[in-house]
Amino acid sequence: MQKKIGTGRHFILFVTLVCLLWAGSSQAQDYPASPVQIVIPYSPGGLTDIFWRSVSDALASYMKGTIMMVNKPGGGGVVGTSFVANAKPDGYTLVNISPEAVSIAAAFTANMPYDIEKDLTYIAKASEVGFGIAVRDDSPFKTLEELVAFAKANPKKLKVAGMGIVGTPHMIMGVFQREANIEATYVPFDGGSEVVVNLLGGHTDFAVVSLPPASPHLRSGKLRMLAACSPRRFPTFPAIPTMAEKGYKRSSFATALGLGGPKGLAPAIVSKWEEAIDKTMKDPKVISIVEKIDGVVIDFKGGEDYRKELMANFPVFKEIVSTLPGKK
Amino acid sequence: MLILSLVALFQSMARKKKVEKTAPQELFRWWNIAIILAAITAYALSLEKIGFLINTFLFMCLLLKVVEPQTWKTAIIGGLITTLAANLVFNVVFRTQIPKGIFGF
Amino acid sequence: MGVFNDLFFGFHIALQPMNLLYCFFGVLVGTLVGVLPGVGPAAALSLLLPMTFYVPPVSTIILLAGIAYGAMYGGSTTSILVNIPGEAASVVTCLDGYQMARKGRAGPALGIAAFGSFIAGTITIFFLIFLAPTLANFALKFGPPEYFTLMVLGLSIMVYLARGSIVNALIMVCFGLILGTVGLDPMTGSPRFVYKIITLMDGVGLIQVVIGLFGVSEVLINVETIFKQEIFETKVKGLLPTREDWRRSLGPIGRGSVIGFFLGIIPGMSVVIPTFVSYAIEKRLSKYPEKFGTGMIEAVAGPESANNAASTGTLVPMLSLGIPTGAATALLLGALMIHGLRPGPLLIKESPEVFWGLVASLYVGNAMLLVLNLPLIGLWVKILKIPYHFLFSIILLLCIIGSYITNNNPYDVIIMVVFGLVGYLMKKFNYEAAPLVLALVLGPMMERAFQRSLLLSEGGFGIFFTRPISASFLILALLILLSPLLLRKRRLREDLRAGD
Questions:
Q1: Is B8 on the interface with C (CB under 8 A)?
Q2: Would residue B25 count as lying in a domain?
Q3: Ranges of each domain in chain C
Q4: pLDDT tens for each residue of A161-198
């Protein structure tokens, strides 16, 4: 009798141990055990939204989990980013990280709901979204050099349209004006397509355009792109030189799409994501979809590198903002 | 706007002579209004913690019981049906992103 | 003749069984989306976007367009039934449509909305086909000064929205304008009236304000006294519009279609504005303007037609220039892009089957929607028969979900609560909500247009007068503002003459 009870007790102990070990290890290995929420801090239909939804299937399969996209628009990306910055760092709430809601926003206001250095974990960069300097087909400027020459001779005469104030096109113009030593009047509009419409209508002289709304007109010849604001030439428009090639290295930057989360994310989770994003962006199926989105250039960087890249531009942005009319 | 408000004030003072105040013959249940507004506010603030299903159910029960008194049975059944129906439409059909809350549902 | 060939070709595509199915699915989802307040076509489109990867391009665009259309139809349903606008464009339908419902005429209201939308859709599709490229080029001429003066014209039209005291209406306009400034300054990015509440950084949120002002406040008003069951007359007087209704509505439908379409082609023009304009014009043309707001069928027929016509109008810049005019068209564009299609001047040449297939399916979709919606009228009217002491809770729940869903932000619901209270107080003190909404929509647009115009003109105000289109809008606005005075003068003169 006694032996049986003893065996029974040992058995229970053994089973319990196995369960505990199993559960313990599966904790780390089974992430993500439930759907991961990726917050897109912009409204549905925007480029960021389309990009992430296009890659989400592949990304989910590399992560061996499910991904749920959630839109939380507002404040140029700040609302959604703030939501994630204040979320639990359990790896189930992540967010798209673009300079607009991070370095650019912080350059504009000291009252950020999160500290861009301390409150966010930067996981990886997936791609860049470039812009272009464009003119109408009947514009007298056939090359960038002609535009710059005219601008130098006639300060403040040229009107340039761009998307928004707290945004990359504004910053690009700011840097460009400093690099080329010119002065043009920046007229902000609410969205890439408004910029293109106004340029087509001849209301401004040139514009910093986003690719998607501009591309049909570039193809039909109604618009001419003088240079690409992007570190590499656009896959869909390989004939257009970049700003760097034209001699303006500092102005050759674009906005970026990456992934991040609240501070304190476990390093194991971060590297899992880094790897998955890397693989996704190298997946031929993903590449074929993403490269069709005009203006998107795949550019993977690890979390630490992305963070450095974002912070590097921050002082420049602060300087540009400080010279804006309302801020002096 | 200031100017306009002053004008409006004068106008209403002038009009007072014409309009007699009709005494409300029915009970003026102002507290209903306060309750509804407070309930909605509470719902909104707690939604992301408690989750859609529970919150909606509580909310509906509250409304049905307090604002326009029904029997407990009506309140609970009504609340249940509405919550499930809303869940069906919004969370299943549309897969809109209404939070699940700490209880996971 | 070539056009009819193309159209025939288009129908051939649209009527293929697969595409018919997609069209049907699209309009069904769209109607549902439209009926639910706060859930706009953009949300539905974005959810279905991944599905579209696996579907051929023509079918995709048919599906998505069907959703957009269906949403327009559905939006008026809740406006009429419970005074909650299904989306911002249906606000105007609340004004008279709901009153009609309260008098037991929900059926005719819904019916005329459906028919009006159908007729408007059909007419405007023809405009689309024949006029698209020309119109698009015209629309390009609208720069910031034109937008600004057009808005000024719009605000002056507000004068005709006022039912009661003009002073009260003007106060509402000012209130609306001030509300419109909440958010980030468009030029410097500095926050105004934000008080560190992040949600307010993008402004108060039109949908939340509208749901609160109309939907919630209506419930509050009804709740304060003991429910009399006659909040909705239980005896429903007929389900379909009568011949008299038709006689009165044909003009508004025609006018609404034209107004809606031509305003819709202006890029960036919100669909809300044509509905207000149609309402104002119908009121101006009516023999009984004082009755507007109590349930005049013209006030439903005109705006509903305008809103459908405007949706077709927004397709003009989308298809011929590749410029989206709102969240819904932006998504359509995105979906096309993913399939490698580029809407724009080349679309018709490179992929005629997409363009003509879409045009034909628009017509098919419209027809489907009419057929779908008519029998539904009976169903909707039954819903009104649910006892109010139960119905109100459902209404409130819909309001809450609707406010939340746009941004997944619970603080938006709080905004709705605030405006529910505000709306309730407004109703008690006889202030109208409509001018406020118009000002809230127009205000921010006007401010941006004004600032940009000044940037373009380097500070000179002359720019508004030297450009022909802009100048004509200003003159029109002046005429409209002065017309009450002119009319009064004429009436005085007539009275004097009569008295002699």
A1: yes
A2: no
A3: 2-232+240-499
A4: 888 788 888 888 888 888 888 888 888 887 777 888 88
Region of A77 (left: φ > 0; alpha: ψ -120 to 50; beta: rest) is left
H or E element at residue B88: none
Q: pLDDT for B61-105, tens place per residue?
A: 777 777 666 677 777 777 788 788 777 766 665 555 555 443 333
Put simply, the answer to whether B36 touches C175 (Cβ < 8 Å) is no
List pLDDT tens digits, range C398-429: 888 878 877 777 888 888 888 888 888 888 88
Quickly state the pLDDT bin for B28 (edges 50, 70, 90).
low
Q: Is residue B11 in a domain?
A: no
- Report d(CA A9, CA A25) in Å as an integer: 24
Question: Residue A155 corresponds to which amino acid?
Answer: P
ipTM (interface pTM): 0.71
Judged by CB atoms closer than 8 Å, whether chains meet at B86 and C414 is answered as: no
Question: Residue C123 in 3-state DSSP?
Answer: helix
Write down all domains in chain A, each with its CATH number in brackets.
32-128+254-322 (3.40.190.150), 131-246 (3.40.190.10)
Q: Is the dihedral of CA A186, A191, A193, A198 positive or negative?
A: negative
Handedness of CA A295, A299, A303, A306 (dihedral sign): negative
Which of C165, C390, C405 comes nearest B11 by C-beta? Answer: C165
Question: Across-strand partners of A256?
Answer: A128
The reply to whether B52 touches chain A by the CB within 8 Å rule is no
Does A70 lie at the interface with B, CB-CB under 8 angstroms? Answer: yes
Q: Contact, B47 vs B55, CB < 8 A? A: yes
* Half-sphere exposure for A101 (CA within 13 Å, toward CB): 34
- Number of C-alpha atoms within 13 angstroms, CB side, residue C46? 28
Using the Cβ of B98 and the Cβ atoms of chain A, whether some distance falls under 8 Å is answered with no
Number of inter-chain CB pairs under 8 A, B vs C: 119
- The tens digit of pLDDT for each residue in C176-218 reads 888 888 877 766 666 777 776 767 777 788 888 888 888 888 8
Stated pTM of the model:
0.74
The SS3 of residue A161 is strand
For residue A52, what are its two tokens?
Answer: 């992430």
The residue type of B70 is Q
Strands A93-97 and A255-262: antiparallel
Partner A, chain C 299-358, Cβ-Cβ below 8 Å = 317, 321-325, 327-328, 330-331, 333-334, 337-338, 340, 342-347
Pick the more confident residue, C363 or A170.
A170
pLDDT for A261 equals: 92
How many domains is chain B partitioned into structurally?
1
Q: How does DSSP assign C214-238, residue by residue?
A: IIIHHHHHHHSSPPPGGGS-SS---
Q: Are the CB atoms for C166 and C490 separated by under 8 Å?
A: no
Q: Name residues 25-44 of chain A within 8 A of C (Cβ).
A: 43-44
**A40-89: pLDDT as tens digits:** 988 766 788 888 988 888 898 898 888 888 888 777 788 889 889 988 88
